[in-house]
C-alpha cells in the first residue's frame, strides 16, 4: 500500500470514528432537551464540517452540531455541485421497490408503446393531481398505474368508488381529471381503494399526487411535463 493511499484510509477512518464518538453525546443531549422529539433512528456526519444529520421517522432529516446545542430543519445544498443533499438523501430513504407496490389494486393507462413505467397515488379531488394529469397527458410511451388514494374527504371516497367501478376506470379517471366530466355513479367491490389507503399509511404517503418510478424513486407532489419526461428516462433499467 503506497503512502497516499494509506493516508487517505487513515483520514476516512478518523472521520468515521469522529462521527461515532459524537453520536452518544448528540442523542443524549437532544433527548434531554427536546423530550417530544421522536426517537432518533440514525446520526451521520455530513460533508459540511461540524454538521451532523439526524434521521427520525425513517426519512425525516434534521441537522445538528457536535453537541446537540442546535437543531436545524431545512435543505443542505452543495453549492459547488449544485445538488440539494437533503432532497437526495430523502429520495434514497423513501424509495420503494417497484415490485413492492400494490399494482393489483391499480388500474392501468397505456400511452404509446407503454415501455416506461410510472405509479401514481392520486385523490380525485386533489387540484394538484388534476394539474399533474394535464401535464402527464402530454407524455407518451408510458404505462401509468393509478392507485386511487382518497384522503381529502367523503366525496373523494365516493368519486374513487365510482371511478374504480366504472366499465373503463382509466377513461372515467382521465375524463374527470383532464376534462372535468364527473364520474357516473357506480357500485362494485371497491375494497382495493381501502387497501391503497392502508398501504399509503404504512409507506408514509401523506399527500397527492405521489409518484413512484421504475427505479423505486419517489416524488411527492405535482411535477411539470419536462421533469416527468426526464425522470421516466433516467429510471429506465
Task: Give a structural overview.
The two termini are 37 Å apart. The chain is an alpha+beta fold and 237 residues long. The chain folds into two domains: 3-93, Roll (Nuclear Transport Factor 2, Chain: A); 98-235, Glutaredoxin (3-Layer(aba) Sandwich), CATH 3.40.30. β1 (40-45) and β2 form a beta hairpin. The model has no long low-confidence stretch (mean pLDDT 91). It has helices spanning 3-33, 85-93, 127-136, 154-164, 169-179, 191-202, 225-235; strands spanning 40-45, 52-56, 60-64, 71-72, 77-78, 83-84, 107-111, 116-122, 142-148, 210-213, 218-220. Strands 7-9-8-10-11 form a five-stranded mixed β-sheet. It has a four-stranded antiparallel β-sheet with strand order 1-2-3-4. A two-stranded antiparallel sheet has the order 5-6. It is elongated, with a radius of gyration of 22 Å.
What structural keywords apply?
four-stranded antiparallel beta sheet, 237 residues, Nuclear Transport Factor 2, Chain: A, five-stranded mixed beta sheet, alpha+beta, Glutaredoxin
Radius of gyration: 22 Å
Question: Which strand order spans the largest sheet, edge to edge or round the barrel?
Answer: 7-9-8-10-11
Task: Give the CA-CA distance, first to last residue.
Answer: 37 Å
> Which percent band covers the strand fraction?
15-25%
Number of helices: 7
Total tally of structural domains: 2
Strand segment count: 11
Q: SSE order, as H and E?
A: HEEEEEEHEEHEHHHEEH
Q: By CATH's scheme, which homologous superfamily of the largest domain applies? A: Glutaredoxin
The chain-level mean pLDDT equals 91
Given as residue ranges, the uncertain stretches (5+ residues, pLDDT < 50) are none
Quickly give the structural class.
Answer: alpha+beta
CATH architecture of the largest domain: 3-Layer(aba) Sandwich
Task: Categorize the overall geometry.
Answer: elongated
CATH topology of the largest domain: Glutaredoxin
CATH class call of the largest domain: Alpha Beta
Helical content band: 40-55%
**Major beta sheet, specifics?**
5 strands, mixed
Amino acid at each position: 500500500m503506497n503512502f497516499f493511499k494509506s493516508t487517505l484510509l487513515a483520514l476516512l477512518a478518523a472521520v468515521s470514528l469522529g462521527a461515532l464518538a459524537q453520536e452518544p453525546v448528540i442523542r443524549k443531549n437532544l433527548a434531554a432537551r427536546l423530550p417530544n422529539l421522536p426517537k432518533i433512528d440514525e446520526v451521520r456526519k455530513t460533508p459540511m464540517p461540524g454538521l451532523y444529520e439526524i434521521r427520525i421517522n425513517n426519512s425525516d432529516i434534521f441537522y445538528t452540531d457536535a453537541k446537540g446545542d442546535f437543531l436545524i430543519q431545512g435543505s443542505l445544498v452543495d453549492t459547488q455541485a449544485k445538488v440539494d443533499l437533503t432532497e437526495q438523501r430523502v429520495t434514497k430513504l423513501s424509495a420503494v421497490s417497484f415490485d413492492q407496490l400494490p399494482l393489483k389494486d391499480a388500474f392501468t393507462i397505456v400511452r404509446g408503446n407503454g415501455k416506461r413505467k410510472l405509479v401514481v397515488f392520486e385523490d380525485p379531488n386533489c387540484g394538484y393531481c388534476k394539474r399533474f394529469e394535464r401535464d402527464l397527458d402530454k407524455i407518451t410511451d408510458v404505462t401509468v398505474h393509478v392507485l386511487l388514494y382518497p384522503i381529502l374527504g367523503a366525496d373523494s371516497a365516493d368519486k374513487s368508488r365510482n371511478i374504480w367501478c366504472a366499465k373503463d376506470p382509466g377513461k372515467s379517471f382521465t375524463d374527470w381529471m383532464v376534462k372535468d366530466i364527473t364520474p357516473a355513479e357506480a357500485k362494485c367491490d371497491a375494497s382495493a381503494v381501502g387497501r391503497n389507503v392502508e398501504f399509503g399509511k404504512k409507506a408514509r404517503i401523506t399527500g397527492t399526487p405521489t409518484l413512484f418510478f421504475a427505479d423505486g424513486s419517489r416524488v411527492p407532489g405535482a411535477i411539470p411535463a419536462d421533469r416527468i419526461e426526464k425522470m421516466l428516462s433516467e429510471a429506465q433499467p
